[in-house]
Amino acid sequence: MEYEKLFGDDKLHEECGVIGLYTNKPELASQLVYYGLFALQHRGQESAGIAISTGGGHIDQHKGMGVVAEIFNNVNLRKLNGCVSIGHVRYSTTGGSQIENAQPLV
After folding, report:
1. How far is the C-alpha of 20 from the C-alpha of 36, rounded, in Å?
2. Annotated catalytic residue: which of 16, 18, 32, 84?
3. How far is it, in rounded angstroms, from Cα 100 to Cα 106?
4. Rounded distance, CA 87 to CA 83, Å?
5. Which residue from 16, 31, 32, 73 has the least number of CB within 10 angstroms?
6. Is 47 helix (H, G, I), strand (E, B) or coil?
7. For residues 28 and 20, what is the distance between their CA atoms, to the nearest angstrom?
8. Which residues, at least 6 apart from 88, have a Cβ–Cβ distance to it below 8 Å?
9. What are the b/e assignments for 54-81, b being 16+ CB within 10 Å?
10. Model-level pTM greater than 0.85?
11. How far is residue 90's CA from residue 104's CA, in Å, rounded to a whole number?
């Protein structure tokens, strides 16, 4: 196949934003990912979510529709503690703009 068919043009396209974090301070993880998502907000404003591994194979998450500042607050961020986390802001390219498609999907 030709390059263009596989990869399209060589221009940047802003679609979604993702941040990953590993820290030895689990009480700070959600706040750090929140700041990262806030900085990536231009990549997607439909929904956002944070998922954090609490160890032992368990993952806590919080996600919602809207922009980062509307979805997260100090109360729900304090409930997310763990050393490994991922955050996502969504700009839908496939699937509708609804909570079922809010990511991260875990």
Report:
1. 9
2. 16
3. 11
4. 13
5. 73
6. strand
7. 14
8. 16, 17, 18, 19, 37, 44, 48, 49, 50, 63, 103, 104
9. eeeeebbbbbeeebbeebbeeeebeebb
10. no
11. 9
Where in the chain are the domains?
14-101
- 14-101 maps to CATH 3.60.20.10: yes
Contact 83, 30 (CB under 8 A): no
CA atoms lying within 13 Å on the CB side of residue 19: 22
Query: Taking Cα atoms as reference points, which of 18, 6, 15, 39 lies closest to residue 85?
Result: 18
83 is catalytic: no
pLDDT single digits (tens) 17-76: 899 999 999 999 999 999 999 999 888 888 999 999 988 889 999 999 999 999 999 999
Q: Are strands 47-55 and 17-22 parallel, antiparallel or unpaired?
A: unpaired
